[in-house]
UniProtKB/TrEMBL annotation:
Cofactor note: Binds 1 divalent metal cation per subunit. Can use ions such as Zn(2+), Mg(2+) or Co(2+).
Binding site for substrate: H129, T130, K267, N276, R285
Similarity comment: family membership: Belongs to the PdxA family.
MF annotations from Gene Ontology: 4-hydroxythreonine-4-phosphate dehydrogenase activity; cobalt ion binding; magnesium ion binding; NAD binding; zinc ion binding
Miscellaneous field: The active site is located at the dimer interface.
Subunit note: Homodimer.
Name by which UniProt lists this protein: 4-hydroxythreonine-4-phosphate dehydrogenase
Pathways per UniProt: Cofactor biosynthesis; pyridoxine 5'-phosphate biosynthesis; pyridoxine 5'-phosphate from D-erythrose 4-phosphate: step 4/5
A GO cellular-component term linked to this record: cytoplasm
Organism whose genome encodes this protein: Antarcticimicrobium sediminis
Keyword field contains RNA-binding: no
Required cofactor names: Zn(2+); Mg(2+); Co(2+)
Enzyme class, first EC level, given as a word: oxidoreductase
Catalytic activity: 4-(phosphooxy)-L-threonine + NAD(+) = 3-amino-2-oxopropyl phosphate + CO2 + NADH
């Protein structure tokens, strides 16, 4: 039996419902998934079948979008998030995780959420999806990886001000990021001996201490201390020479020091096909690498390319032995 992917609806006023419908229309039976949300929020005319059991998805996805219905408090107005729907968004995420942890679905794929609406409507206590999923998975530390066929990048620090990075970037944090990434590349992506390249924090990786001493004082010594029996680790490398084609061929993932150092290269090289993957969870989780796009919601012009890539990557990860 093919277990479908659980696709959470995300923010109903964003592009999530329409790209879910378009992704189904393109993928059909090639990548079975079940959409969890309020059917009223899907684009008018979307052929759906409401299911009682996710196992039924494989038998209907060729001709209709499989739906696990989850009633929300309000209808959706594209571009205008309603805090009344916040509790529904949160509960759908919880339901997708529960289905995957129980083995009824193979992975979780999440459509974008709008944090302000969740805070306003349900006092959502987490900075975003990733931190909430860590709590649901019962783990303290997870890692965000952005992946495409061109590049995989992992930011060690994420959504903090650049001025805070040198203070929040610690040896323990970098070590955990490296170890979780290496383990996940083996167990979830099937890379037997991952190659990781670590970027420096400063321009030119400090250039011998002239442009910063973090590389000399602790980053390079830490990399030398980390056992490399099951993966290969190099660095710290100057970040400005890590992302051209020849350099990318030498590693499976780049460990970066801060958000933009990681995300600018992948969004430049493969903007539409980037996938957000949460590493370190006890289940598979992917997501399109974009937001709710309120400015174009409901206009029928949103592309499902990143969502399709996220669904396909989840399917691939679910088949790794």
């Amino acid at each position: 039996m093919t277990r479908p992917i659980a696709l959470s609806c995300g923010e109903p006023a964003g592009i999530g419902p329409e790209i879910a419908a378009r992704a189904w229309d393109i993928l059909r039976a090639d990548c079975p998934f079940v959409w969890i949300g309020d059917p009223r929020h899907l684009p008018a005319g979307t052929p759906i079948v409401e299911l009682d059991d996710p196992a039924q998805a494989a038998s209907v996805c060729a001709t209709a979008l499989p739906v696990l219905s989850h009633p929300f408090a309000a209808v959706n107005t594209p571009g205008r998030p309603d805090p009344a729907n916040a509790r529904g968004v949160i509960t759908v995420i919880e339901r997708a995780v529960a289905l995957t942890q129980s083995g009824q679905t193979s992975a979780v794929c999440t459509a974008p959420i709008h944090k302000k609406a969740l805070i306003d409507g349900a006092r959502f206590a987490y900075p975003g999806h990733t931190e909430f999923l860590a709590v649901l998975g019962g783990v303290e530390r997870v890692v965000m990886m952005l992946a495409s066929d061109t590049l995989r990048v992992v930011p060690t620090t994420i959504h903090i001000a650049l001025a805070e990075v040198p203070h929040r970037l610690t040896p323990d944090l970098l070590r955990e990021t490296i170890e979780i990434t290496a383990r996940s590349l083996r167990t979830q992506l099937g890379i037997a001996h991952p190659r990781l390249a670590v970027a420096g924090l400063n321009p030119h990786a400090g250039e011998g201490g002239v442009m910063g001493r973090e590389e000399i004082d602790w980053i390079a010594p830490l990399l030398e201390q980390i056992p490399q029996d099951s993966f290969t680790l190099t660095g710290p490398h100057p970040a400005d020479t890590m992302f051209h084609a020849a350099a990318r061929a030498r590693y499976d993932a780049a460990i970066c020091m801060y958000h933009d150092q990681a995300l600018i290269p992948i969004k430049t090289l493969d903007f539409d096909r980037g996938v957000n993957v949460t590493l370190g969870l006890p289940f598979i989780r992917t997501s399109p690498d974009h937001g709710t796009a309120f400015d174009i919601a409901g206009q029928g012009i949103a592309t499902p390319t990143s969502l399709i890539a996220a669904l396909k990557l989840a399917q691939t990860m679910a088949t790794v032995p």
